[in-house]
Write a structure and sequence with these properties.
The complex is a heterodimer of chains A (about 270) and B (about 400). Chain A is mostly helical. Chain A is about 75% helix and about 0% strand. Chain A has helices spanning about 5-10, 10-25, 35-55, 70-95, 100-105, 110-135, 145-175, 175-190, 200-205, 210-215, 220-230, 240-265, 265-270. Chain B has about 400 residues and is of the alpha/beta class. Chain B has helices at about 25-30, 65-75, 105-115, 120-135, 150-160, 180-195, 205-215, 230-245, 400-405, and strands at about 5-20, 35-50, 55-60, 80-85, 90-95, 170, 200-205, 215-220, 225-230, 255-260, 265-270, 280, 285-300, 305-310, 315, 330-340, 350-360, 365-380. The chains are: A mainly alpha (about 270), B alpha/beta (about 400).
Chain lengths: ~270, ~400
Amino acid sequence: MTTVLELRRHRELFTNLTLRELRGKYKRSVLGWGWSMINPLAQMAIFTLVFGFFLKVPPPTGDPSGMHVFAFFLLCGLLPWTFLSNGVTGGMGSLLANANLVKKVWFPRQILVASTIGGFSVSFLIELGVLTVALLIAGNMVVPWMVPLLGIVVLQVAFVLGLALALSVWNVYFRDLEYLVGIGLQFWFYATPIVYPMSFVDKALEGRPELLTLYRLNPMTRFAEVYRDLYYSLRWPTLADTSYLVACAVVSLVIGWVSFNRLQGRLAEEL
Amino acid sequence: MSEPAISVEHLSKRFRLYHDRNQSLKAAVMRGRRARYEEFWALRDVSLEIAEGVTYGFIGTNGSGKSTLLKCLARILEPDEGSSRTRGKVSALLELGAGFHPELSGRENVYLNGSILGMAKAELDRRFDDIVEFAGLERFIDTPVKNYSSGMYVRLGFSVAINVDPDILLVDEVLAVGDEQFQRRCNERFADLRAEGTTIVVVSHSLSSVQAICDEVAWLDDGILRETGPAGDVIDQYLLEVHQERSDGQAHATSGRWGSGEVTIDELEVLGADGRPLDLVRTGERITLRVRYSAAAPVAHPVFTLALHTLEGTLVTNPNTRDAGFHPEQVSGSGYLDLMVDQMPLLPGTYDLSGSITDSSGLHIFDHRHRALRFDVEAGARRDGSGLVTMNGRWAMTDPVRHGSAP
């Protein structure tokens, strides 16, 4: 039903809904936009304390950057993860949260999911901006890597959008999907090298190449690695990783789009 | 005639009635299949066309499918069979202020709501002052809407929706918002839109407002299209049938009767100056309209209403005791109430008299007798052209010399 053309006609609605997400979220709270920073900072503090200090997870040394700071190593993987986690949770709930609109006004419903992801993308970009400044202060010359990083961000936005599109319609038919996804995300978090380096996994799965391949099928593993390549180690990611991510983004988007269009017919009735 | 603004072809819509409204994966896994449900057809094979510029009404009892049809036109629901096509920009007034964000200011919400309804930013910039003025919220436009009263909220929502400049406007029971002044402005705006050639589709339970604003009407009954045509005709047929059903066949063919029956109207009478019933009334004559009622137990503060309709269904007048400031304390036993008319203003024709008794809120109907009495009016002593009523005016001229005689 919904064509790309119709989406184009409603791009202002997308902008306005995204702004609503952003404004609504922090308006009239004491710290306002500060909250979008405090959450990742608190997480970073906790993980650094637990994994960097108590468990003594050694951060890898950036090659060629020579960086060796657990907090930065962590953030390069944690920020993309937080975006995925927020985007999937928020995006999949966006139809239910806007049930009132869906039942009363027609517009391409994808926009609701997309604008939620849009809001989180803006937060994500701001967080990355702060990380960039922090890395520069710490002596990592990340400026030339900002453009390729943006490219990866685009891929990840597409990947998350696809997931959220598919999950959002399913969530209308099965309301407890949200909890299931919540649990899934926890597994996924620890199945991704965020609080530990990839070298741990390589060592643990030595001699089990099939398990290692399985581990590396996880798109978030590749995302974390690529973000770290660019911002922590200051080097180009491998072509294999990048093309795998492109494929993941495309597949996710196609699956999301197709399932959304197939299932959206009875949305107004089921909500 | 040009292409219709809306055309509906063999449209059917099926709803699912879930036996256990438990939409969860857990439940689905436990059962080994998806929720059990029964299907029923909310709309069955509906076909109609609405010409451009027409104000069209959908009527029918609760659950007849009229709102479903409107939602199909608005694309909110997808038909299971058949199709509906609309030409031009559609705006649906299904709920006012849908999508307002309570934390955002009135201004931000106008832009947000406007774009939900499909307005471009430039257009909104242009219309912004109109919208705010129409809603009468100039002073509060930068206040978060969560601090608005419900009236302000609805007014702002209405104001945005009505300023979208749609080609087709779909309205569901939202005509009655705000105070009287706002109501009047809404009606003016509707009139403007109609004059501009906007096609308007209205769903309403208020037959009188449908009759007042609609050119044509479609009558839906249990999801099936019963009748389409000029508003007066279809509404008459509808009233006839619906009220006949409720009155268990005791009323005669041209009338209907409904109500809870604490007080009943036994008879409506037209009496002449001598107090005798008339079956022929002359324009300008002194008459009395009498409502004979009986109440088994005392009923406090009843409101009596009379209505005169032409045979075509046009409402001529609708006097009631409450508006006239006449407040009977209570009624009990049998009695009658008179409406005395010194000079009967109706011009020659055939008219139907309806009567009803309601509680003081007007919402609870004790007894309504629709078109219970039909009478003819003949020309009286004075003649006053054609039409429905005479104003009993006198012609006069200030300068008889200049205009006095024809050359």
